[in-house]
Design a protein that fits this description.
The chain folds into two domains: about 1-75; about 80-140, no CATH class. By secondary structure, the chain is mainly alpha-helical. The longest helix is centred in the first third of the chain and has 41 residues, at about 1-40. The two termini are about 35 Å apart. Helix 4 packs across helix 7 (about 115-135). Helices cover about 80% and strands about 0% of the residues.
């Protein structure tokens, strides 16, 4: 009984400690919401490609929060090259998910996973940039 109460207290304390970080996220996400609304308003009565706009919104937010750098797709109104790289190999996840070892063999074959390797390199570079930004701002990554 005491162990459960202690665990609940620890979880509650962690939640309270995360509130300042969440407040910082709030302003950053609102900026992308404003960009999304601007794009929708700019269509002035024409059909909105909602799927594309909301993908851009969510990926711009993810880029900002996780990588400390937005993909700027809402502003540029086009897909970022890294997202296109990711989409190039995503189709493999469905057929190969029952046999993950086969996908692993495919990744190791020369030329078979060029898009995957380029995407992994891009992600590695962004994570290194993110760590540098965190260190410069004295915040945890």
């Amino acid at each position: 009984m005491y162990a459960q109460q202690h665990l609940i207290l620890i979880i509650f304390q962690q939640w309270l400690n995360s509130i300042p970080a969440l407040l910082d996220y709030d302003d950053r996400i609102i900026k992308y919401g404003a960009d999304l609304l601007h794009n929708i308003a700019a269509t002035s009565g024409h059909p909105v490609h909602a799927n594309e706009e909301f993908h851009w919104f969510s990926l711009d937010v993810i880029g900002d929060l996780a990588l400390a750098k937005s993909f700027n797709m809402l502003v540029d109104k086009k897909w970022h090259h890294a997202i296109l790289l990711m989409n190039d190999f995503m189709w493999l996840l469905g057929p190969f998910s029952p046999v993950p070892w086969l996908a692993r063999i495919g990744i190791c074959l020369p030329g078979m996973a060029r898009g995957w390797n380029n995407f992994v390199k891009w992600c590695k570079d962004r994570m290194e940039d993110r760590i540098l930004v965190s260190l410069a701002n004295h915040i945890p990554p």
